[in-house]
Design brief:
With about 400 residues, the chain is mainly α. It has one domain. It contains 15 helices and no strands. The longest helix has about 35 residues. About 50% of the residues are buried.
Length: about 400
């Protein structure tokens, strides 16, 4: 049931459409509610981290034919049958009252207040932030084992599927794309915390903070998708996906990745929250105790995962875009700091870029490989992002 990668933005599977349409037949007969007003935060990006003007989303963007649309007549006209998410388009209904992921995103916000600042954080801030990062059952415990579910499972040297955190370092390295947590993120973050805590120069502390921000944002994005995938077997993971996106807030709020999305493009935040609700809707319909209905609801699951991932990727692209725009008008240490985040967060986009536009993906990878911000073609990066990731 677990797809290797989500459905690309512009691809709609006709078979999935047919099955979903059949499942949704009864919803069209339901009484039609009053169309929802725009979300209250649609024009208020002040509480988001921008480092640049809000992006102008492609006005031609439309929901995919397979998308769950709770803000359009409470989902009465989309292909999803009636479900728990229809009750309130602004509210995720938790499966388990205790969602431990909320505390991890709260820790991210505390770290952000300490390190993601315009001025160089003091060395002690890195020490304090690392303590938060290393809390028992906290961020580090998940970063060090995070797998990218867009790729096939890793295997042992003997070829047996295995969790990345059970593999030897050499085996993890052989599956670096899947084992991104232990191979890429944990070393990046560990080194950045250490560098910031020991660096005497303000420039080096700022660069270290940018690496921490990039690593944790990539972790949050990967976690939103991972938990949405694994909630097929563990329903409470749907709650974790919601919490990794917005820190346990509902649509009108948003911490973590949602805070960035709301500040840069409220429509992307709304579409990401719609995606979270889509996953919850599928989970409500597909009884986890009844394996007999899994195939029936598989198209819904595929559609929900694709919808959520498309919007979350757009959020990442917006962050990379905003920092690239800021880089273009900055100089000296400021330019170096912006580029430090872009070159470490930007690779998150390369997998999907290669699916959508291989030639532009190569050009983006070439720019991201540069270490000197003065050599970067910022306009080219922005143009690629706008062309490849135009819609949430």
């Amino acid at each position: 049931m677990i797809p290797i990668r989500p459905v690309p933005c512009r691809v709609v599977a006709s078979l999935a459409l047919a099955v979903i349409a059949a499942l949704a037949a009864c919803k069209a007969d339901d009484p039609v509610a009053t169309p929802d007003a725009a979300s209250a935060d649609a024009g208020d990006p002040a509480d988001g981290a921008t480092d640049g003007a809000p992006a102008d989303g492609d006005r031609a963007c439309q929901a995919q034919a397979t998308d769950y649309q709770p803000r359009v007549m409470r989902s009465a006209t989309d292909p999803f049958p009636p479900c728990v998410s229809d009750q309130d388009p602004d509210t995720y209904v938790v499966i388990d009252a205790s969602v431990s992921t909320i505390a991890r995103v709260a820790a991210f916000e505390e770290i952000a207040a300490m390190l993601f600042t315009a001025a160089a954080p003091p060395a002690q801030a890195f020490i304090d932030a690392r303590i938060l990062y290393l809390q028992s059952n906290g961020l580090e415990s998940r970063v060090s084992r995070r797998e990218d579910e867009h790729y096939p499972p890793a295997t042992t040297s003997g070829g047996a599927p295995a969790a990345c955190n059970t593999l030897a370092p050499a085996e993890q390295a052989a599956h670096a794309d899947r084992c991104v947590g232990p191979v890429v993120l944990a070393p990046l973050l560990g080194d950045a915390f250490a560098a910031g805590a020991t660096a005497g120069a303000a420039r080096e502390r700022r660069l270290a903070a940018a690496r921490v921000e990039a690593g944790l944002l990539r972790f949050l994005y990967l976690s939103v998708f991972k938990e949405a995938v694994t909630c097929a077997a563990a329903p409470q993971d749907c709650d974790s996906s919601w919490a990794y996106y917005g820190g346990g807030d509902q649509r009108a709020g948003g911490k973590g990745l949602a805070r960035y999305a709301r500040g840069l493009e409220p429509s992307t935040h709304d579409r990401a929250f719609d995606g979270v609700l889509a996953v919850r809707c599928w989970r409500d319909l597909d009884d986890p105790a009844d394996g007999g209905d899994d195939a029936t609801y598989a198209p819904l699951r595929t559609a929900a995962l694709a919808q959520l991932d498309r919007a979350a990727l757009r959020a990442v692209a917006l962050i990379v875009r905003a920092r690239t725009v800021a880089l273009a008008s900055a100089g000296g240490d400021d330019a170096a700091v912006h580029w430090e985040l872009v070159r470490h967060l930007g690779p998150t986009l390369l997998r999907e870029a290669a699916v959508r536009a291989p030639t532009q993906a190569v050009a983006l990878a070439t720019e991201l490989a540069r270490t000197d911000p003065a050599a970067v073609d910022a306009a080219a990066i922005v143009a690629i992002l706008d062309a490849v990731f135009p819609c949430p």
